[in-house]
Write a structure and sequence with these properties.
about 475 residues; three-stranded antiparallel beta sheet; about 45% helix; alpha+beta
Length: about 475
């Protein structure tokens, strides 16, 4: 055996292989069948299970709201491209679908089937003009021994429509047992979903009609005639039985009642359904506190943060990277698609980091690192030092002519905005959870930056008022 292994590995390679040697075997092993792997009942479970519906909708709708942007790579930096053609296409994918609907269906299909497909329509070799989301249960992958995927077949109304691999973008989750199709969370949650459904059906039947199991037995121990037996049954059911409950009668000795059913309390019904709910939501990555009626405000906020960071954000990264690899090449090279980082930030940690960097960085460095703002001519000095304030004519504008006794309109607008900003900052002291920044329009950029930086160190009302008093003097 060792001689055989030595012969097998005797030829040492001095470079990388031009291709993967296992692809041909993988394609042969996964030869095309009649359709994708059986995903029995996933759509039905989505329609019938409230927890599956809630979990998938939370993910799909939240992800559809996240903004996706296109950037051009310039070395290690990403330069934003305003109104890129791909962004325009995603804004109106096709005449029947909106942007929200496209991403909602894509994320929902990934959760329900483990796969999602986009069909690209446009000129041959040109840019896509339309994007259509395809139903995963109708798509079959056609393997290829050289290119991994030769194409796809879309089955509808008994017809098999061939689609080229270039025309289709296949989003899929990881599947440990399949090389071409993704694994749906519904497959892992199927047992819990079915158990919850059976419990819900049992509860419905308990209060519904045609209950199969009798609620109890009336046992007539004394012998009576057929006429009397029918009369007793009729009178009992007329007086004590409804259309939804049934009672069994037995003839024998004297009459007695025997209860043979289990109550909801005996079965611990509510706790059982709650356990099934928690298991289903955990499989989909939905924190229970998001849907629990007993969750406090603090628990709900933590749950929302966990949902965004650990559930929603990885799914958005999967979609963005797939778009970068298979859709953006139609528009050129060095392009990347990324979602805006919607993950919540730790405000206290961010403020502590800014305070630590305050005496060490220049204004331009602070603007770039923490505020994503471009450099300014007056930003080479330290944040804490004095800064020359350019006059309007030094910035390229004409020197304003203001009559004696009159107030410059620009200065008046800046003073009014400083007053609004001061009220905003004072109100925010009483609301530490408020993270929305004040929108500055009239205050000069250099002064607005100084005020923003100084407010980081203003811990009380007097300190805030002092910051704005100095700002007014600067005007």
């Amino acid at each position: 055996m060792f001689n055989w292994l030595s012969d097998l590995f005797s030829a040492r390679r001095k470079g990388l292989r031009p291709g993967a040697p296992h692809i041909e075997s993988v394609a042969r092993h996964n030869s095309f069948g009649s359709g994708p792997p059986a995903d029995v009942g996933s759509a039905r479970l989505y329609e019938q299970s409230p927890w599956v519906y809630i979990a998938i909708n939370r993910i799909a709708e939240a992800g559809a709201l996240a903004p996706l942007k296109v950037y051009r790579l310039a070395g290690e930096k990403r330069v934003g491209i305003e109104n890129h053609p791909l962004e325009q296409l995603l804004g109106n994918p096709n005449p029947m679908t909106s942007r929200f609907e496209l991403f909602e269906q894509t994320l929902g299909s990934l959760e329900l089937h483990g796969n999602a497909y986009w069909f690209l329509a446009g000129d041959a070799g040109g840019q896509p003009r339309e994007i259509w989301a395809l139903r995963p249960d109708r798509i079959s992958v056609v393997p290829d021994r050289q290119t991994v995927v030769r194409g796809y077949l879309y089955a509808i109304d008994g017809q098999m429509i061939p689609l080229d691999a270039l025309e289709v973008i296949h989003f899929r989750r990881w599947h440990p047992g399949n090389d071409y199709y993704g694994l749906s969370p519904v497959s892992s949650a199927r047992a819990a979903v079915l158990s919850d459904k059976h419990m819900a059906d049992w509860n419905r039947n308990t209060f519904g009609q045609d209950k199969g199991v009798p609620a109890g037995i009336v046992n007539i121990q004394d012998f009576i005639s057929d006429t009397d037996f029918e009369r007793v049954k009729r009178e009992w059911r007329n007086n004590y039985s409804g259309t939804a409950r049934k009672t069994a009668f037995l003839r024998g000795g004297s009459m007695e009642w025997q209860h043979i059913g289990l109550s909801h309390t005996d079965l611990d019904f509510l706790r059982g359904r709650r356990a099934q709910r928690d298991e289903i939501l955990n499989i989909f990555g939905i924190p229970v506190a998001l849907v629990s009626e007993n969750a406090t405000e603090a628990n709900a906020k933590v749950a929302e943060r966990l949902f965004i960071e650990r559930t929603l954000w990885p799914k958005l990264v999967r979609i963005a990277q797939k778009i970068t690899g298979e859709l953006l090449p139609f528009y050129g090279v060095d392009l990347v698609a990324e979602y805006d980082d919607i993950r919540p930030t730790d405000t206290e940690a961010r403020l502590a980091e800014i305070r630590a960097a305050y005496p060490l960085l220049s204004i331009n460095e602070m603007r770039a690192a923490y505020f994503q703002l471009p450099p300014v001519p007056w930003g080479d000095g330290p944040v804490s030092g004095p800064h020359p304030k350019p006059l309007p004519h030094e910035e390229g504008g004409a020197s304003p002519t203001v009559s004696k006794g009159e107030i410059d309109p620009a200065a008046k607008s800046a003073l009014d905005e400083l007053a609004q900003w001061e009220r905003f900052a004072l109100n925010r002291l009483d609301k530490p959870d408020q993270t929305r920044p004040f929108q500055v329009t009239a205050v000069p950029d250099e002064l607005a930056f100084e005020v923003s930086a100084s407010l980081l160190f203003a811990g009380d009302r007097e300190a805030v008022k002092s910051v704005f008093a100095g700002a007014r003097e600067g005007l």
